[in-house]
Amino acid sequence: MNDKPKIIVGLVVVLVAATFPFWYTLAKGRDVLPEDRERPSEGSRCVMDDPVANHMQVLNTWRDEVVREGDTEQIKVDGKKYHKSLTDGCLQCHSSREDHCDRCHEYANVELTCWECHLGSKGD
Amino acid sequence: MNVLISLAAVGGLFLLGTLGGAPGMGWIFGVVLPYLAVGIGIGGLIWRVMSWANVPVPFRIPTTCGQQKSLPWIKSNPLENPHNGLTAVGRMALEVLFFRSLLRNTKAEVIDQRRLVYTSAPWLWIGAMAFHWSFLIILVRHLRLLANPVPWCVTFLQRADGFLEIGLPVIYVTTVLFLAGLAYLLARRLASPQLRYISLAGDYFPLFLFLGIGISGFWLRHWTKTDIVSVKQVAVGLSGFSFDSDALAAAGSLFYGHLFLVCVLLAYFPFSKLSHFAGVFLSPTRNMANSNRSVRHVNPWDYPVKVHPYDEYEDEFREKMKGAGVPVEKE
Amino acid sequence: MPKPDEMSYYQQEDLLNIDATPPKTGWMDTPVDLRPGSFIYPGKAKNLKILDLPNPRDWAIGDDDWKLPEGWKKTVLEGMADRLSKYRSFKLFMDTCVRCGACADKCHFFIGGGDPKNMPVLRAELLRSIYRKEFTVMGKILGKLAGARELTEDVIKEWFYYFYQCTECRRCSVFCPYGIDTAEITMIARELLGLLGLYINWSIEPVANCFRLGNHLAIPPHGMMDTLEFMVGDIEEATGIRVDLPVNKKGAEVLFVTPSGDFVADPGIYTCMAQMLLFHELGIDYTFSTYASDGGNFGLFTSHEMIKRLNAKVYAEAKRLGVKWILGGECGHMWRVMHQYMDTMNGPADFLEVPKSPITGTVFDHAKSTKMIHIMEFMADLIKHNKLKLDPSRNDHIRVTFHDSCNPARAMGILEEPRYVLNAVCNNFFEMPRNTIREQTFCCGGGAGLGTDENMEMRLRGGLPRGNAVRHVQEKHGVNQLAAMCAIDRATLVTVCDYWAPGVLVTGISELVANAMVFTGENERKQNLRLEDIPGREEDEPREGDANDE
Question: Closest residue of A to B299, CA-based?
Answer without folding.
Answer: A1
